[in-house]
Amino acid sequence: MEADFQAASAAEWGIAVPKVGNAAASRFGIVALAAFLVAQCLDGICTYLGVVAFGIDIEANPLIAGLMSHLGHAPGLLSAKVAAAGLGVCLYLSEVHGVVALLAGLYFTAAVAPWTMLLFF
Predict the structure, then answer these.
(1) 13 within some domain
(2) Average pLDDT of the chain, as a whole number
(3) Domain residue limits at 95
(4) Model confidence over 72-86: pLDDT tens digits?
(5) Are 38 and 30 in contact, with CB atoms under 8 Å apart?
(6) Is residue 7 part of a domain?
(7) pTM (2 decimals)?
(8) Would you say residue 10 lies in a domain?
(9) Short-list 92, 90, 67, CA closest to 80
(10) Which of helix, strand or coil describes residue 17?
(11) Residue 97: which residues within 8 A CB-CB, separation 6 or more?
């Protein structure tokens, strides 16, 4: 009964109630988010280098290619990567860490690895 009263008064008066979380899940989420953000940065850098070296037609994603052709190479690519990073942070804040880790792995294998092979080997 006392706990219900404290929770109700905390919600009523705007006092923050500390959230007790799982430290291992939190650590996994932080690592997943860091990997996702690194993948976004590397994909952006490699995409920019690829477009400068080979032209806009090398970009396989028509949405990114359209943004880059309308806004310019750097602004279009930067806007797409900032939006993707923001959505990744939203997933992290929603505590869907497995999805963030899956997307990070997908970006490393489907975006960063092919660009690396094309640009440097």
Answers:
(1) no
(2) 90
(3) 22-120
(4) 999 999 999 999 999
(5) no
(6) no
(7) 0.80
(8) no
(9) 67
(10) coil
(11) 25, 28, 29, 32, 33
